[in-house]
Structures are given as structure tokens and as C-alpha cells.
Design a protein that fits this description.
Shape: globular
Number of helices: 12
Radius of gyration: 20 Å
Distance between the termini: 17 Å
Strand content: under 5%
Amino acid sequence: MARWVESIKNAASTIAHGMMSYYKGNETGMPVGLLPDPYYWWEAGAMFDQMIHYWYYTGDTTYNDVVTQGLLAQISPDKDFMPANQTRTEGNDDQAFWAFAAMSAAELKFPDPPPKQPSWLALAQAVFNEQAHRWDTTKCGGGLRWQIFTWNKGYEYKNSISNGAFFQIAARLARYTGNQTYADWAKKTWDWMETTPLITPEYNIYDGADMSNNCTQPIPLQWTYNVGTFLMGAANLYNHTNGSSLWKTRTQGLLNGTNVFFPSQLGGNIMQEVACEPQGTCNNDQPSFKAYLSRWMAATTQLAPFTKDTIMPKLQASAQGAAKQCSGAPNGGTTCGRTWNTATWDGKLGVGEQMSALSVIQANLISKVAPPVTAVKGGTSQGNPSAGSGSAGGTPPDPILTRKVTMGDKAGAGILTAVVLGSLLGSTWWISFGS
């Protein structure tokens, strides 16, 4: 094994250990699959997704059983991610992050669940079916509401992360299964976004809009995970369509839209959560957002290889910055900070900081791992196109959502991987890259 690969894997192991130390679900008497306060339900799903990627990049199986147990603990009797004890807080975006984890498990060939448990693919399909059923045309011409339940604050808000997450799930299911219905829903979601001010001609993605004004007045905050989820969806559709010019244009446009998160005053390649990080106003959720953009940018280099030369310098420089934030921190480097543009630990710590550092550092191994599989190219997870049909509320989804996949739906896709070199040397955290 090349020294730089081994050193990045060692760094990832250290950071992963620090992140998983926050999780108590594998301890006697603690709730399985949940993070302790102040972390919400969705972030546990995001953490398990990150640990699936940790296994994917490093081959380390240490946490696999904990991840599987945690994911399966949060499914309901209807075999979906709708646990009854989360109705107080669960929104469409929250549910989607658990679907992302299940979809990653299917695409990356994470070990299958035990017999009699739903497959990873079926769990993602359940979320898709339920969210398609929630598509709301009462105001704004369509789209998903932020919240699932009427009693939750934000029910009258349509936001980009809920709709972008649904777009991504549909796009990834289209690529994996070859079922055109999923691609049609992804296109429908994109087309709806373009009728709103939530996406601009420059591919800036704004936070959301209130339904009281028919979604005409956006909240102009930009977050890394909003453009990231659309980038991931667009790259999957580019790959699914064997490189269509339309999805190439959109993928490139969204990649350009990430530039706001790589400020020129930081050199243009170091990621920053610009809506809260410089001001020091990030809440408990927001420090994790850079993890998702990092993860999805790395995947984009495999799905849409023309993006590689733009993306890899940003992941490399950001990884160097993240590594510095794990230097001088307590607990022997297992604690990482938030601001990747400062040379030493900034005193911030938490699940989100760990996840973001882990994500961007291990993303630099993207050239060393196989691309995501599909049902016809290496995939083993067996789906259930009707999953989730009975638990979205109201009547079951339209049959078009759950029709069986035919061979005529299958689509092959050629994938290339990115090339990156790095080195993590010495007792301090430092990553360098070269040819």
C-alpha cells in the first residue's frame, strides 16, 4: 500500500473514533440509532452514512455492526424510516438523510442486513415512495413541504434541502435500478425548482420560501448541503443518461455554484460555511454540512469525470485545512475543529466538526475505490418497488411509483475515477499532494 494511502486511512481512523465516541447507542440501556442531545434524529442517519463511506474508503470493518444495528433500529413496522418516536421533529429532509445512508449501503455494497430485514435498496425506495406521495400542489405549483406533520413548525415552508434530497434520491434510484419513473420524478423536481426563485440562473441555491406568498420571496441564505445535494443528483443523472449534454450543463453549473463556499480571500479552494462560519453563528446542525458537500463532490468525480480537475484541488486544500484543525486539539488529535482556514484548533468540537473533517480527508482516496454499483453492474441489494406504500398517510401512492423494473428500463453507465495523491506525515496532521 502506498504510504500516502495508508497515512490518510490512519487519519480517517483517528477522526472516526472521535466521532463515534459521541454515539452511545452501543452501550447498555442507551437508545440504539440515536445521538444524545443536542443532536437531532437526522444527524445520526448522516453519521451512519459517513461511517459507510469510512468503511468504503478504508476497508475497516470495526464499526459495521454498529452502523447496521443503528440504521435498522430506526425503521418502523412499515419497514421505512418513520419511527413513531420521531414525529415531534421528523421532516422530509430528516427522513432523506436516512435514505441517503441506505442508498449508499446499496451502491457501495455495504454488508446486507440480516435475513427478514428490509434490504438497503428497499429502505431507500420506501422513502422515495412516501415523499412522492407528499408532493404538494396546494401552493407554489408543487414541491415538498419542509415538514411532514402539520403540527411541526415549518409545515408552511418549502425548502431546497427537502426538495434537493428528494431529487437526489430519485436520481440515485434511477441510476441504480434503471427505472425511468425515478428519473421522471427527478426531472419533475428540477423543473419545479426552476419555476421558483430557489435556484438562480447562476445555480445559486437559496434556503427556501414561505408558502404564504406562493414561494415568491426566497430566504437568500446559501448552505453547502443545498447545492451539494443537487450536484449529487445531477451527476447521477449525467451518468444515468450516458453523458447527456443537458445534465452535463446542469452538473457544471451546480459545480460553479459551489464557488461561494470556497472564498477567494481564503485562496479559492478551502471550504467554508459562509452563512454562519465567519460570523461564529453556526448552530448544532450546521457544522456537519461541509461533510455532505465534500462527500458528494468526491462522488461527482466518479459519476461525471469531467469535473475532476475542478473538484480535486478543492478537496485537497480543504483536507489540509481540516487536518490542521485536528492538530493541537485535546484527546490526541481525535477532536477536530470547524474553521479550515486557521492553522490550529479553533476550540470548536462536536459530531458535525468530526464528520466534516472525516468526510473531506477520506474523500481524497476517491481514486482508490470502485465507483458505485448498479443493479446490472455489481449490485446485490434486492429492492421492493412498492416499499413504504402504506405509511405515508392517506391513500397509497399512484401505481406508477411502484411498478416493477423491466429490462427495458436498465441503463448502463461508464464511470471513471479521479486521480489524487496525498501524504499524511509525522505526529502532526498534514496532507500534501503531488503528481
